[in-house]
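re: ur question from yesterday

yeah so i grabbed the chain u mentioned. its 185 aa long if i counted rite. heres the sequnce exactly as i have it in my notes:
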Amino acid sequence: MFFHKDITWEQRKLIELTSVFTDGDWIEAKDQSDSGIRLVQTGNVGTTEYLDKINNAKWISEDTFQTLKCKEIYEGDILISRLPEPAGRACIMPNLGTKMITAVDCTIVRTNENNDSKFLVQYLSTPSYFKIVNTFLGGGTRQRISRNNLAEIIVPTPCNIAEQAKIGAYFSQLDHLITLHQREF
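ran it thru and got these structure tokens back, copy pasting raw so excuse formatting
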């Protein structure tokens, strides 16, 4: 393998790897419209992949965006669904060709300059991560992990961003190849 064994790793809280760590917006059915700004929902967040469900797409108007002071999400942002199944799954947002926001049960993550988003999303798809998330699930009718508990999850991280990028790219490519292979059957 091409990873260096002498690279130092740290144990960091998830929130420490980010420049943005916030929840999406509370959008009710009455706030939605037929076009405008795309509302990305928890169902669009797959494990390491964005699931474009265009036939079920939701939108809000620019006026609603302004009135509710919504938070815009951007290509390259990570969305983490705090709802099952599984809770904690994450993807990197692609360019949808439109302005975007997300729902309240998604956490918007923008890595800081010292951390690689592909590496982070790959970590956020590991069995050990999901096991940790499951210990925090709570809530009445719908189980979820709180944003505060999500923020405190420890992420083992190479100190070197170039090493993070190599690891993230390697496993992203592997995920892509597995997906292509699965589609053949």
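noticed a couple things. The CA atoms of residues 171 and 177 lie 10 Å apart. also DSSP finds five helices and ten strands in the chain.
anyway ttyl
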